[in-house]
Design a protein that fits this description.
two-stranded parallel sheet, Endonuclease, Chain A, 19 strands, 2 domains, disordered N terminus, 17 helices
């Protein structure tokens, strides 16, 4: 009984918080992206591709794309979709990149620290959560060491993401010479000042010497280390420990410059301190065969690039759509695109959390299960971990990894970054990772789902009321 009362109190508290956000937040809206996707015509225009030496010729660009196409098959995702995203973003695809898939926290932190140790000129780090725990302190100590060695270190962290991190943790870094920026601090003065409390910096970016970049969903905190704990159960119940299952990538090659530009733009816009003088854009050579496009969402962006990329990739899929998402609250357009793809015979599979650190998005996501399952979409849940990945692979050739969840908050309110990778070898790695998660997940069957308790249905219905702010 006490557990039920505690759960009710927690749920009411979250609802009240949601109502407050309704009054203090503006309401951005989705542009008519599906109409844009359906009406766009490439008119024979070949997508632009640039490399280390500048723009490739039309013949070179076509040759690169043709290598990605399956034999004797339509490949709209490599034609119509690519041309559309170039028109929306105004940026070409970038050739010559090496992309390394990092499938969990330990792999990610090891690769990031190795890159930081190799730094000789500058390190730029941007994150949402940064805890003063064992992992967070190990990064701070390493960055302080590099600063003492003469490497210029800058760090951006979100005010809400570090709300539970003692301010002295960052003060120690500043005393050691590291320049820091707290994005949108949480407090009365920030609410009344230049910031919109509902806009957060959810990006995860690390750039070392302008030559190596990292991005994905992994925050800097202890729960991302394998076989450690993050308490997500109610205090009145038996506590359960979960490892945060996340995905990151390391990029080397010409695309690194795009991440550097994103960081510098954010710093210059919001920091009162100038960046240290230095060489932030070195000459970048070809390092691999991956084509990369760096996509961003920012608050009040006229056309959210990551949202548009998802809509277009799903609508142009011919074989398969495999999604793994921590917070899955699609708007009507995304939901319809997935349903229509499944009804057209595309293999649509989605792996979602079976447990969550945030109840409202969890139930809001589950409220879509019936429509998805009835259309033939296969839904799976992982309950052995706290699933935090934000990844997709379409037709085995188009992949995206980044910070953006599939929800209104990521698409409309927060600063986000995703990398889109076109590469069949990398796509195979993504499919292999998806298969590993799938083997550890449990399929949700329609008939069983229809038998769920009324209380769960009520939670889903209530959570949907607030999906715009989640």
């Amino acid at each position: 009984m006490n557990g039920i009362l505690q759960e009710t109190k927690s749920f009411i508290l979250v609802l009240i918080s949601g109502l407050l956000l309704m009054y203090i937040s503006g309401c951005a809206t989705f542009p008519k992206v599906p109409m844009l996707v359906d009406s766009y015509r490439a008119d024979g225009h070949s997508p632009r591709i640039t490399g280390p030496e500048g723009p490739l010729s039309e013949a070179e660009a076509k040759a690169l794309l043709n290598r990605l196409k399956p034999d004797n098959e339509r490949a709209d995702i490599l034609e119509h979709h690519i041309a559309l995203m170039e028109a929306v973003t105004g940026k070409p695809l970038i050739a010559g990149n090496k992309v390394t898939l990092l499938c969990n926290g330990p792999q990610t932190f090891s690769a990031m620290k190795n890159a930081i140790r190799s730094a000789t000129e500058n390190i730029n780090l941007e994150t949402f959560i940064w805890r003063a725990d064992r992992v967070g302190r190990s990064f701070a100590d390493l960055l302080l060491q590099k600063q003492q060695e003469g490497v210029d270190v800058h760090a951006i962290y979100d005010g809400f993401g570090v709300f539970n991190t003692a301010s002295g943790f960052f003060e120690q870094m500043r005393e050691g010479g590291i320049r820091t920026l707290e994005f949108n601090p949480v407090g009365l003065f920030s609410i009344l000042g230049e910031w919109d409390i509902n806009n957060r910096d959810h990006r995860k970016i690390l750039i070392v010497d302008g030559k190596i970049a990292f991005t994905g969903g992994t925050n800097i905190h202890y729960p991302s280390i394998e076989k450690t704990s993050a308490v997500i159960s109610d205090k009145a119940e038996q506590q359960t420990e979960y490892y945060w299952r996340d995905t990151h990538i390391q990029i080397e090659g010409p695309a690194v410059a795009e991440f550097q530009r994103l960081f510098i733009t954010m710093w210059n816009k919001h920091s009162r301190l100038p960046l240290s003088s230095g060489r932030y854009f070195p000459s970048l050579q070809e390092r691999g065969n991956s084509l990369v496009r760096v996509l961003t969402n920012t608050p009040y962006q006229p056309v959210p690039h990551i949202y548009t990329a998802y809509i277009s990739a799903i609508k142009n899929a011919r074989k398969s759509i495999h999604l793994t998402h921590a917070y899955f609250i699609p708007d009507r357009n995304l939901l319809n695109a997935l349903i229509q793809a499944a009804q057209a015979g595309v293999d649509v599979k989605i792996i979602l959390p079976g447990v969550s650190d945030f109840r409202l998005p969890f139930y809001a996501g589950q409220s879509n299960y019936t429509a998805l399952l009835e259309a033939g979409v296969k839904v799976y849940e992982r309950s052995d971990v706290l699933l935090h990945s934000k990844t997709a692979v379409v037709d085995g050739v188009w992949a995206t990894i980044g910070s953006s969840n599939m929800d209104h908050r990521s698409f409309l309110h927060d600063a986000e970054v995703n990398a889109v990778i076109l590469d069949r070898d990398f796509g195979k790695q993504m499919e292999d990772m998806f298969a590993q998660d799938l083997a550890l997940a449990k399929e949700v069957h329609l008939e069983q789902w229809r038998e769920r308790p009324f209380t769960d249905r009520l939670k889903e219905w209530t959570a949907r009321l607030f999906k715009y702010w989640l």
